[in-house]
Amino acid sequence: MQYLIIGAGPAGVNAAEQLRKLDDGAAIRIVGDEPEAPYSRMAIPYLLMGNIDEQGTHLRDRSDHFAAHGIDVSQGRVARVDPAAHQVVLENGEKLGYDRLLIATGSSPARPPIPGMDSDHVASCWTLADARAIQSRAASGSRVALIGAGFIGSIILEALAQRGVALSVIEQGQRMVPRMMGPKAGGLLQRWCESKGVGVSTGVAVEAVDTDGVRLADGSLVPADLVITATGVRPNVAFLDGSGVSIDQGVLIDRQFRTNVQDVYAAGDVAQGLDFCTGDYAVHAIQPTASDHGHLAAVNMSGRNAQYEGSVNMNVLDTLGLLSCSFGRWEGVDGGDQAELYAPDDYRYLSLQFQDDRLIGANAVGLYQHVGVLRGLIQRRAPLGIWKQRLMRDPTRLVEAYLSTTQVI
Ligand SMILES: Cc1cc2nc3c(=O)[nH]c(=O)nc-3n(C[C@H](O)[C@H](O)[C@H](O)COP(=O)(O)OP(=O)(O)OC[C@H]3O[C@@H](n4cnc5c(N)ncnc54)[C@H](O)[C@@H]3O)c2cc1C
User: Fold this and answer.
1) HEC-encoded secondary structure of 174-237
2) Ligand 1 center–CA 230 separation, angstroms
3) Over the chain, what is the mean pLDDT?
4) 202-231 burial, b if ≥16 CB within 10 A, otherwise e?
5) Pocket-forming residues, ligand 1, beta carbon under 6 Å
6) So what's the pLDDT on residue 370?
7) Which tens digit of pLDDT belongs to each residue from 129-150?
8) Which of 6, 268, 272, 307 has the most CB atoms around it within 10 Å of its CB?
9) How far is the CA of 352 from the centre of ligand 1 (A)?
């Protein structure tokens, strides 16, 4: 059996390793377009903060790891997929055959169509190459404007602030992390950042970028030597044109990671997979989902049948020392119940969303001990019984609720 994987990120690497475990004699090849050893984008902020070096971003420590597992990793950019011939064609014209193909090409930053966005002093923070450019340009004391305070923007914010730059953040939504948290939690995050010397403008659009900085729709200027954009991502699917593979927000897959095209599977940021909490198919663009996808796609590619239960959409942020997180259906559902704790002076917030007596979503700020428990309660779909009313009265009793409903005590 010949397995070919396009993309050497967490989804592709997990899939390759799982395939090796399940199919001893198979030929397994990963082709990815970045020059470095397979690495984790999640580690880039730690590189920018100086906590690790580039080696520390690699997904596997040893340089001979893949060879030792009989996994061939090569650099190349796939230009097209020809399912009828069971071949992919690289940009250099080389053709690679496959029996089963995994598309694990991830996503790329989307830049809004704003004048000046293609200037030299506008950068993304997505690849190791981007990180090197930022390392050389975002020196302590330089003025940096960050456009976008979503999940990725807020992760980058932390790394930039730690570099000692004069940082300003601009978010078009009414609050920070608007697709991850409600107004109270987002407001706490903003106030926290401001208290740490980071300028934050919310509810205002960027009109243009020029050599002085970022011009906002309200007429103000955010002065900047370097502008970093974090304004969403798009799945890398252009090479699938003409392949017949169906695409919506990402590559459409079923519960076994199969696309509509025979022997072609997809996983990770590029794939629109099952969401555990909503039952819909969505692009999560987070690493835990990519890793789950890679693992289970491989099980199915190997000929076994593993029905995917879906992944919980979740985001965890450490913003200049303030931990926050969102899980699942944090906005709640029609007919559901909500419990809330709001202690703005202490930068603490917790909201729990229930459907019947199950926890289906949550937002938390400044409550370190609850992250694992929240995920556990949502993922296990544990009926809370009497604990629902107790949590409605005091949502901080989560650990007790978890222990009681898992019958550990
Ligand atoms: C700065 C930063 C911080 C992050 N922090 C977190 C975090 O804290 N938590 C979290 O959950 N997620 C985080 N993420 C998101 C996380 O990194 C992604 O969800 C994850 O990398 C997705 O894995 P993947 O394997 O699907 O795609 P990727 O890691 O993007 O890998 C896909 C690979 O395929 C390559 N490729 C694309 N097209 C082609 C082609 N035509 N031919 C060959 N190769 C191709 C790409 O260049 C890339 O190397 C972060 C992302 C960034 C940028």
Assistant:
1) CCCCCCCCCHHHHHHHHHHHHHCCCEEEECCCEEEEECCEEEECCCCEEECCEEEECCCEEECC
2) 14
3) 96
4) bebebbebeeebbbbeeeeebebbbbbbbb
5) 6-12, 31-34, 41-42, 44-45, 77-78, 104-106, 125-126, 152, 155-156, 236, 239, 268-269, 285-288, 290
6) 83
7) 999 999 999 999 999 999 999 9
8) 268
9) 30
What's the Rg (C-alpha) of the chain?
22
> Is the pLDDT confidence value at 407 over 70?
no
Report the separation in Å between the CA atom of 56 and the middle of ligand 1, taken as the mean of its atom positions.
16
Say how many Å lie between the CA of residue 258 and the centre of ligand 1: 20
End-to-end CA distance of the chain: 49
For tokens 């090796």, the residue is: 20
**How far apart (Å, rounded) are the C-alpha atoms in residues 317 and 381?**
24
Q: What is the pLDDT of residues 362-388, one digit of tens each?
A: 999 999 888 899 999 999 998 999 999
Q: What is the mean pLDDT of residues 107-113?
A: 94
Tokens coding 242: 């003409």
Q: What digits encode the pLDDT tens for the residues 39-91?
A: 999 999 999 999 999 999 999 999 999 999 999 999 999 999 999 999 999 99
Residue 331 is given by DSSP the state: T
Residue pair 274/239 in contact by the 8 Å Cβ criterion: no
Q: Provide the percentage of residues in the chain whose pLDDT is more than 70.
A: 99
Query: Is it the case that residue 409 has pLDDT exceeding 60?
Result: no
| β partners of residue 52 | none
- Of 296, 291, 295, 290, the closest CA to residue 308 belongs to 296
How many residues comprise the chain? 409
Q: Distance from the CA of 339 to the center of ligand 1, in angstroms?
A: 35
Are 64 and 37 a contacting pair, CB within 8 Å?
Answer: no
Mutate to test the pocket of ligand 1, among 135, 229, 269 (most ligand atoms within 8 A of CB): 269
pLDDT in tens, 163-190: 999 999 999 999 999 999 999 999 999 9
> Ligand 1 centroid to 404 CA: how many Å?
38
All structural domains of the chain, each given as residue ranges with its CATH number in brackets, are 2-108+234-301 (3.50.50.60), 122-229 (3.50.50.60), 329-405 (3.30.390)
| Atom 14 of ligand 1, nearest CA residue | 42
The amino acid at 12: G
Tokens (6 digits) for 165: 């730059």
